[in-house]
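Box 3.1 A note on notation
Throughout this textbook, protein chains are presented in two layers. The first layer is the amino acid sequence; the second is a token string describing backbone geometry. Keep the layers aligned when reading.
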Amino acid sequence: MEAMETKTQAQLEELLGTIVEFMKQKDPGLSGMLEPELVCCDFEKRSALIRYRKKDWEKNHRGEMHGGAAASMFDVAMGITISAFTGGENVTTTDLHVSFIRPFFGESFDIEVEVLHLGKSLVRVRAIARDTETGKEIASAIANYAHMHDYDYIATLE
């Protein structure tokens, strides 16, 4: 099946939900181990809200989220959001910049992803992580992704 551009809120919700569930249930790697949860998405704003719950293996010696785990959460949240907006197309990260504002001490974190530019070759995305309980901003990220037009991501979901 060839990926087709997502054109409605309902298509976006369905595809994001499918991608998130696939990762949680069938991806044995880091993306699946992070267990992203879809909170909501907005087709018009080209955004999604992805939640992560902190696990013991993600903590550093101070009990906060390890920076590498947090960067991975940004990468996965942004990647799955792009995939949903492109109808399931696979993308690969070309660069990722994370700015840490305060430690990730909370038990869960919401990452709000916004697709800034959805081009034919590259996609530009930004995201903000907030502590779910306090709503305080704890980090932000900006990244570019390249389309992988020759890889059928939807087929791997079936």
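The longest strand covers residues 108-118. The chain is about 30% helix and 35% strand.
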